[in-house]
Amino acid sequence: MEPTNDPKSNLIIVSNRLPLSIKRVEGGFESSLSSGGLVTSLSGLTKSTRFQWFGWPGIELKDPADREEVTKSLEEHNAIPIFLDKTLSQEHYNGFSNRILWPILHYQSGVSFDDTPWQAYRRVNELFADAIADAAKSGTLIWVHDYHLMLLPELLRNRLQEQGKSCAIGFSLHTPFPAGDFWRNLPVRKHLIEGLLSCDLIGFHTDEYKQNFIDTCASLLGARTEIGNQIQYKNRLVCIDKFIVGIDPQKFTETLAKPEVQERIRKLKDRYKGVKVIVGVDRLDHIKGLTQKLKGFDAFLDDHPELENKVILIQVAVPSREDVKEYQELERELCTLAGKINGKHATPEGTPLLYMHRSVPFNELAALYSVADVCLLTSTRDGMNLVSFEYVACQQERHGVLVLSEFAGAASFMSEGSIPFHPANITEMSEAIFAAINLSPEERKKKYERLRDFINTNTSAKWGQTFTDKLSYRCIIGPGLLVSSGNALHEGGPAGALISFSLVGIIVFFVMQSLGEMATLIPVTGSFTEYAERFIDDSLAFALGWAYWYLWVTVLANEYNAISLVIGYWTDAVPQWAWILIFWVMFLTLSNLGILAYGEMEFWLSLIKVLALIVFFILAICISTGGIGPRTIGFTYWHDPGAFADSINGVAKTFVVAGTLYAGTEMVGITAGESANPAKAVPKAIKQVFWRILIFYVGTIFFIGILIPWNDHRLLGSTSKTASSPLTISLQDAGILPAAHLINALIVISVISAGNSSLYVASRTLLFMSRNGKAPRFIGRTNKLGVPWAGLIFTNIFACIVFLGQSSSAGKVYSALITLSGVATFIVWSVIGIAHIRFRQALVVQGQDPSRLPYQAIFYPWGTYLSLAANVFLIFFQGYTCFLNPFSSTDFVINYILLPVFVLFVIAYKFWNKTKLVRLEDMDIWTGRREVVESEEIETLKKTKSWWARIYSIVIG
Ligand SMILES: O=P(O)(O)OC[C@H]1O[C@H](O[C@H]2O[C@H](CO)[C@@H](O)[C@H](O)[C@H]2O)[C@H](O)[C@@H](O)[C@@H]1O
Ligand SMILES: O=c1ccn([C@@H]2O[C@H](COP(=O)(O)OP(=O)(O)O)[C@@H](O)[C@H]2O)c(=O)[nH]1
């Protein structure tokens, strides 16, 4: 399959068994659908996603001609067979996977380990790795399924690295993952876990399994697990999450509507008139608790003789793993038990138990689900159990009751809509069956509706989409341009990212023009919220100030998080939380030293950053022209894989990344306004910002777009932040070996600088607010040097939300708190535009001549109107991904909540303080105007500067 513009069309699914099992028949081969939940869940995915499916065809074929024939017939289904010889596949599938690993994953004791099957397991994983590494291309997403292939991610990663390919590897476990103590029973436990930790993303069915796995990694390997949903092991950062697997409910609705199925339903209804039908559908497996089910049903019949001939249990036991001794024994046991129950409870009218040891066709299964009043599932352990979903999908009319063991993974989500019970407690099971049969129609409807909503929301398509989305975009908390630019390149492609960074650069440029014009005439010390107060409405200034402060608190928290991760690249001797604490104290101390220390530090940090980027640009030119590295690259990647990653959509997505990265640029206008001669300093600062945007932001995007193809998976965080920085990737590809260390150092410097600035800006915003009665007075306290120490402490305390991210349970709250601020930048920029427009209108109304302003915004009014419109658009657009199919209400709230909160702040303040929109004729455009310093002074200053100071001032400001 050729890579297309959709990165996910480059998806490979790997499972031990293919969806079609092949059998030899006279004159050729016959294929039949494999049974089990894994096939069901992945088949549901075929509707929404295109992929290639690699797996074992279930048959030994030695003759190349046979292999070719089978390969061809599977090709139509996008399935690619991996042929294994019989002994090897038996030892792998039955010997290790099903006799040793499966029981341990399901808390079954008495497992005896044997080295021969283990070696076969390793060998099969190696053969899979060989085949898939050969088939994969750089940028392919590889999604591995289930316990048969736990070593595959590591083996695959090694092979891919040797072949110079970079792919994202994800893994989904379909079984439970047991508590650490149980997992210890397996002598090769460490190998299997290490095998998985080469993944980028690992998915589990429930939070319990996920947490068990995380705990095991910590206790068994000493992996770092302090960050919510992430495991750091040997310089790899692996995402761990819960993904609810589901079914395709529509398939059942459509099947039930078929005339032949309706006819079958009618017949079954007739046959069981006046009889309550209980259905059970399970693979014949110990974990399904079939022995317990039959015993429980027996007890129920004993307990309720009045229900004689009025209840029937139809149990489908689908043959499974029939070559395994334990499964054969179970089959015999169940047969005997079924015979005994019927022997005991049968009457001349019939038998209460219908035990079918075979699989049933899909239409028959749907009809059976549909006529059943109760579905009884008794798993002693079960990864999820999709039969419970399927039963609900067929109960639109009857509102039948689900009696579900509390040990099925599905019970974590369905217990309220079902009747839960403990499968080992026969009395409890009997009571649960009785309760289900006697449930009132209202109760049945209520429970059914709950379950129906759940299965319709959590479909197999959604499961697949969520997993592959996350695998594509995994774990980005960008320390600014150095890492997030990679995300932009991946989303938009080199031309797409360049377009959006240039356009947002233009927006920022006009925002700066607006601020610059106002700041030159009326410089404000502290915060531009003063313009909102004087030119628009006091209440808007109040809301704006707090939104702006919150934006910087989240930036600061993110910097703490980033720095602790980036430093962890060199050493893991210190836990992540301790690094956060160290930098927390360091930032607070430094910021309390005052503006001079802040300025001095920023000077050096910025200088290093700038020099490093300039060196990068020079290296990029050398690499691209073939002077350094293996070959001449030129604009190859603009042609293959292409200039755009996802046409206009990709470009649109990168606007948000660009907006977030440019946030804070507006502060330059303010600082320039504070200078001795704003009339000179502001225009100069604006010019510098223009160059800075062009050189650093647009330049970086341009060069990384030349050096790395947009579909290079490493851009999405393959091992660590440092490894996923486009700078690291391009330098490493060129053979510059210490690149990762250099870039790591650069990221550390950038993060320190960004954290330092966030604290500075947030505390100054608070100072202004407190002096204007918009924040409590104590927050505005300053020391002798004028340092707003109270605001600094207050801000830094709020930045402690970063510690939430250290716990897996609070990790979601942390990322939500951070995402909330995404909209703040665009709100702030919009308000600056409105203030500017009103300021100009007031000048005219009050008889002032705008042409006599000390600095006039270029292209006014069009530039300001354009940037205002763009910012308003971005306010609504920044969270648009939550509307993509399927709609995510949580993401919607997180992305947009700040908007109503902002409006609420405005309304509340307005109501409380009875503020009014400032009338143009009353607008205060006079207070605080500053006299212009004679220009010779500046000229003299310029002349005395050294050459490097001049370059520095041009580039950095
Ligand atoms: O392939 P088999 O050996 O015949 O076994 C069939 C499948 O059984 C297991 O299914 C699990 O996956 C389901 C979907 O996620 C889940 O609902 C169920 O609880 C699990 O038992 C096994 O994990 C699959 O690999 C097998 O294909
Ligand atoms: O004769 C049958 C009866 C059922 N199933 C399907 O097998 C799956 C069982 O999945 P579940 O998650 O309940 O358990 P698993 O067998 O995977 O452990 C369901 O989708 C059933 O529709 C099947 O393939 N053949």
From TrEMBL:
Could you identify this protein by its name? alpha,alpha-trehalose-phosphate synthase (UDP-forming)
Q: Which SUPFAM superfamilies match?
A: UDP-Glycosyltransferase/glycogen phosphorylase
Classification from the root reads: Eukaryota, Fungi, Dikarya, Ascomycota, Pezizomycotina
One term under GO cellular component: membrane
PROSITE patterns linked: AMINO_ACID_PERMEASE_1
Q: Provide the species name.
A: Penicillium arizonense
Q: Which UniProt keywords apply?
A: Amino-acid transport, Glycosyltransferase, Membrane, Transferase, Transmembrane, Transmembrane helix, Transport
Which chemical reaction does it catalyze? D-glucose 6-phosphate + UDP-alpha-D-glucose = alpha,alpha-trehalose 6-phosphate + UDP + H(+)
Coarsely, its chief localization is membrane
- A Gene Ontology BP annotation from the UniProt entry: trehalose biosynthetic process
Q: How does it sit in the membrane?
A: Multi-pass membrane protein
- Catalytic class of the enzyme: transferase
The record's GO molecular-function terms, alphabetically, read: alpha,alpha-trehalose-phosphate synthase (UDP-forming) activity; amino acid transmembrane transporter activity
Q: What is its EC number?
A: 2.4.1.15
Gene3D superfamilies from the xrefs? Amino acid/polyamine transporter I, Glycogen Phosphorylase B
Residue span(s) of domain Amino acid permease/ SLC12A: 476-917
Q: Where in the cell is it found?
A: Membrane
Any keyword Cell division? no
Q: Which residues cross the membrane?
A: 577-597, 603-623, 689-710, 742-767, 787-807, 813-837, 858-880, 892-912
Asked if the keyword Transferase belongs to this entry, the reply reads yes
